[in-house]
Amino acid sequence: MVKHYRMTILEEFIEHTYVSVGITSPDQITIDELSTRLNVWVHYAEVGSRALEAVSGMYSMFIDNRLPQDQQRLDFLHELCHLLRHAGNQMTMPESYTQMQELEAEQFVLYAAMPSSMVFQLTPILPTMADAIPCLVEVFDVPPELAVKRIEQIKRRIIDGYRQSKRSELKNLSHEPAWSRETKRILQQLDHQLIAKGLPGYQDHGLL
Q: Where is the IrrE N-terminal-like domain (predicted)?
């Protein structure tokens, strides 16, 4: 069923980013590793976590050092989304635009903390989806509620992908003409004649 899973554009972006800097295993998804490979300066202080890009391509961020370490990492991933994908000052942009950026950053955290390519590497050793939740918590070092959210998301995507593939199959079948055997034989003969004259055959028009 995993074959029916379809990544979103955002998810593909994260997967590509990870591959481009050599992030290939869950133990590499840390603040130190990601900040080093993506050239992000991280400053810990008693302030709310936020991203800064003083000059294009020069990334830095503040991480609230009052937070537990696991939350600091999630904050880092959230702010990383703003650095890599967003522009502008949220203090001056319309609220609807800010909300859109925040929603994408929340999704970014799910994908970046538990990339599907790494999650699916675990599937051969996971008998059921229920077993996946504690496994994700341990392997990706994420809170249980985040693991549940990711698993539910993956399940929905697989179901949607399966339904879409079935719809495509039915659509393709409905386009196939119900020719009789004799009709097909005649069309094939005509097709050969047309091709012999250097003309497009019936097959070129999808009739065979």
A: 37-151
Nearest to 83 by CA among 28, 23, 41, 113: 41
75 in any annotated domain: yes
Tell which residue, 114, 116, 115, 136, has the closest CA to residue 125: 136
Angle at 22 between CA 31 and CA 74, to 5 degrees: 25
Domain that holds residue 13: 2-167
What does the pLDDT look like over 87-118, one tens digit per residue?
656 655 667 777 888 999 999 999 999 999 99
Say if 176 falls within a structural domain.
no
Angle between helices 95-113 and 69-85 (to 10 degrees): 120
Based on the number of CB atoms within 10 Å of its own CB, is 30 exposed (0-12), middle (13-18) or buried (19 or more)? middle
